[in-house]
Amino acid sequence: MDSMEVNKGVAAILVAGIAFFITGTIGDQLVRNHRPEKTAIEIKGVEAPAGGGGAPAPAALPPIAPLLAKADPAQGEAITKKLCTSCHTFNEGGKAGVGPNLYNVVGAKHGHMEGFNYSKALQSKEGPWNFAELNEWLHQPSSYAPGTRMAFAGIKNDQQRADVIDYLRTLSPNPKPLPPVEAAAPAAAPAGQAPAGQAPAAGQKAAPAPAAQAPAAQSPAAQTPNAQAPAAVPTPAAQGTGATGGSEAVSPTTPAAQPPKQ
Ligand code: HEC
Question: 222 and 194 in one domain?
């Protein structure tokens, strides 16, 4: 009798195991789990890793200078009220919360608040907080300083990020000057050319290009009113005039127009 009970128990376990295995196998056959080739939801600025070029996400960020040039610090203050004041104070001599006080942080060293217990990740960053670094940091703190204690996803909207950085800049007895826009334009041009060379490779790779180019095309326009015409007019006009600055900035914006000519 006893051994019968034991047999029943063992059989029950076996049957359960077999049933589990069979349903699992059938389930696998019925539902194929393909990984989608393209991300369903495209998040602006996180394009680079998807392209598979091994380029880190920050490389896809458009240059900060042109964005800062049209940034609105009042808008930035409003954004920080929503996103940052739960952890940070912004006034001079303000107390630390979960995060450090942020008065006069632009241009200061990483971990600028005396006595705040910063993570190693942040402390090990060399040099001052410049605009480009703040841009990367606020885009995604965890990728700028892996291991940081700032539990904040980041601001993905480029202009909003620039607004916030511009607001931080004003929190100082003598605010750092805005970075010159012309310095960013040559930097953007090669960035725009690279994807142009790769254009046949993938539609995905071309996506970051317009983002990087847009400011490039705008920056000369913002500086010199003369440049506005070539910037707005299609490529052939810009090339005809022979304006070097204009054609450089404009030609990468129309990678599609170039191949037929060559
Ligand atoms: C959940 C809390 C939290 C939120 C929200 C948050 N931060 Fe932070 N922040 C921190 C912490 C904690 C640190 C210190 C990070 C470390 O030591 O790794 C920090 C550090 C920083 C630093 C570097 C300061 C220094 O002295 O080097 C800056 C700049 C900064 N935060 C800006 C912002 C801005 C701007 C926002 C809003 C858009 C924001 N933070 C939102 C918690 C937060």
Answer: yes
